[in-house]
Amino acid sequence: MKKVVLDLDRYLSWRSADRDLELKVTSGDNVVLTVSPNGHDAQSTHLENGGAGALVKAGEWYTLETIGIGSEVCFNNDDFRETIAAADWMPVPRASKNS
Predict the structure, then answer these.
(1) How many whole angstroms separate alpha carbon 91 and alpha carbon 37?
(2) Range with the lowest mean pLDDT among 37-41, 58-62, 92-96?
(3) DSSP codes of every residue in 34-87
(4) Exposure of 26 by Cβ count < 10 A (0-12 exposed, 13-18 middle, 19+ buried)?
(5) CB 5 within 8 A of CB 70
(6) What is the DSSP letter of 88?
(7) Which member of 2, 11, 14, 19 lies 3.0 to 4.6 Å from 78 by CB, making a disulfide possible if both were Cys?
(8) What is the pTM of this model?
């Protein structure tokens, strides 16, 4: 299993994994997980320390940050590869059909 420590200076920027990942907060403060399945839509979820985990499917974009001072997050495995988005990338809403 892979573990990451998030704090006021460390967060996981937008990235996409090559396989499904299960994430769970194992100690510290709650975290915010934001997932974009298609680079347009995005949804944020709070994950609580000791609470239920969350699934990020392969190919979905996600970002993760603590909403406190520090958090430890455990991934279900450590045998995966990630594509890290450019520093200025974020999901962009689709253009309006009326534009």
Answers:
(1) 9
(2) 92-96
(3) EEESSSS--EEEEE-TTS--EEE-TT-EEEEEESSSEEEEEES-S---EEEPPT
(4) middle
(5) yes
(6) T
(7) 2
(8) 0.91
Helix (H) or strand (E) holding 14: strand 12-17
Q: For residue 61, what are its two tokens?
A: 């974009």
Per-residue tokens: 35: 């997932």
Question: How big is the chain, counted in residues?
Answer: 99
Neighbours of 66 (CB within 10 A): 21
Q: Which of 9, 26, 15 is nearest to 91 (CA)?
A: 15
Higher pLDDT, 45 or 96: 45
Q: Which of 45, 64, 60, 47 is nearest to 91 (CA)?
A: 60
